[in-house]
Write a structure and sequence with these properties.
This protein has 179 residues and is mainly beta. The chain is built from 3 helices and 13 strands.
């Protein structure tokens, strides 16, 4: 999943963004941040954080990382154009509970990254996936560098959502390359 999720605002979670119009019937292309593109249509209350306008979305077609959707009340291309770049939010309470060792990206972004010795490495800025698994993008304020760590048990042996920190154990190959 290649995305830049906006941070959660209180208990509002961004689940997608309307990127463009598709066709003349008012369909829109939605880049989704859900596990499966069609999941976005399962939420009862989807809204724009700025205008608080709500949307009822029906999936027309679904691709790997986006979907074509029909928004109730939008019947023309010109109406759909007005929705371009609107971020779609849900209330956190609408999300299903996560299982053990599962985390929502919104819960991890902004979390402090520490070494096994407790030294602060940086803050999780984003979670990206280029096809081989999730990668944590950690911003180090001291060096102003962005560091990347595979989101695996080997590299991230501890996650504490309650206290908002993770423990990072760099791969031996990375440590050897630095030395």
């Amino acid at each position: 999943m290649k995305n830049n999720l906006p941070p959660a605002v209180d208990n509002d979670i961004c689940v997608g963004v309307i990127t463009s119009v598709n066709g003349v019937k008012g369909y829109v292309k939605i880049r989704n941040f859900t596990d499966k593109p069609s999941d976005i249509a399962k939420f009862d209350f989807i809204f724009d954080l700025n205008s608080k306008q709500s949307f009822q979305i029906t999936v027309v077609s679904s691709k790997k990382d986006y979907l074509i959707g029909k928004i109730e009340g939008i019947n023309s291309r010109s109406d759909a154009e007005k929705l371009r770049n609107i971020k779609l939010y849900i209330k956190r309470s609408a999300l299903p509970s996560v299982k053990e060792n599962e985390y929502y990206h919104a819960d991890l972004i902004g979390t402090e990254a520490r070494s096994e010795e407790g030294i602060i490495i940086g803050t999780i800025k984003n979670i990206v996936n280029f096809g081989a698994g999730d990668i944590l993008e950690i911003y180090d304020k001291t060096s102003e560098n962005t560091l990347y760590y595979p989101f695996t048990k080997q590299c991230i042996p501890e996650i504490n959502i309650t206290q908002k920190f993770i423990i990072v154990k760099p791969l031996e190959e990375v440590v050897a390359a630095i030395e």
